[in-house]
Amino acid sequence: MNGEYSLDTTEGMAASGDPPTNNAVDDYDAEEALERQREEENKIKIKLKSFEGGVYECGLTAAKMSVMVANMLDALQETDLTKIATREPIPLQNDAVTNKALEKIVEWVDHHWDDPPIDPDFDDEKERRNEELSHWDKQFIDIADQGELFDIIAAANFMDIKGLVEVGAKHICNKIKGKSCTEVREMLKIHNDFTPEEEAAIHKENEWIYAKD
Amino acid sequence: MAEEDHNYYQQMAKKPKMSSIDVKSTAEECYPRDSLDRYGDDLCEEILSYLSLEDCFRVECLSKQWQRLVFKRQHVFDVDIVLMEKKVHHRGRHVGQTIAKDVNWRALETVVKKCPNITSIDMIVNSKDTERLFERLMNAYNDSLTAIHIRFMNCDNYM
Description:
The complex is a heterodimer of chains A (about 210) and B (about 160).
Chain A: H1 2-15, H2 19-42, E1 45-49, E2 55-59, H3 60-63, H4 67-76, E3 90-91, H5 99-112, H6 125-130, H7 135-141, H8 146-158, H9 162-176, H10 181-187, H11 196-205, H12 207-211
Parallel strand pairs in A: 1-3
Antiparallel strand pairs in A: 1-2
Chain B: H1 2-14, H2 41-48, H3 53-59, H4 64-69, E1 76-78, E2 83-85, E3 101-103, H5 105-114, E4 120-125, H6 130-141, E5 147-152
Parallel strand pairs in B: 1-4, 4-5
Antiparallel strand pairs in B: 2-3
């Protein structure tokens, strides 16, 4: 029905005899149609299974934000997408994908499913990287239990959800900002594997950066 | 059908399509859950790529993994970080923003040594050292540079 409607509009424009506008309308319609299709597909719920066995439901478009899940679904070559919903849950076999982590990941993709896709080759890459996290993302990623936070980022990396890895990375880097070496090491529980001499040598090379404070 | 699905997914999961999966060796498994040491190099590099160049120098000394990764994805060199405020009192008047800055040459050499992947340079022309600075930077990054952003400052102490 939607298809018929957009076809009518295009014909109406064509009758007015303006080919360039006609093309523009075609592009616009194609975009609209794709958006509507994504919206429809997201109403189809698929099941994801954590490493611990917990099963979580997620919209199809949202789930496809995970390149790994998208590839698995593509490989099924299922033309009738509604059948995907009746399939067995997709197991995510990495120990970072705990129940808690997967629950949060599903929450994130459900909120972000209609984001424009990230294109790393695109010009605004630098701009995007420097962009501050949205209020929603900040609240989402502000997790008291650091083990859980690291699970979510590792799980998002395993599932290849670039946007969520970026949110996690920015959050960690925001926390590092302005802290001393010792504070960061304590916070992120990083084991110092330098000898005192090696560490002193690095400090000496970099002392000018501390002098800027 | 269900059985088939399961087997299929199992097989798919064993064939990772991306390179950035952390393969955990037995040695890595002993790291605590809440320690960033648990991450492999790929993910750690990705996270550290969001640090500012200045922060990179602050945290290089954290561990050998960090030292190895922290500068890898630093592509922009804002020359301001190796400039020092000149300790001049211009007739007792605070000259603020327009004061000329000296290049800390030792710091510049440290940046050049540690950051091999610079593709873009941001610099302010406000010092008598500008020419020499420019020459050194072109020498270091001639093959990889794709952009230089230069701001000209109207500077009281320009000589």
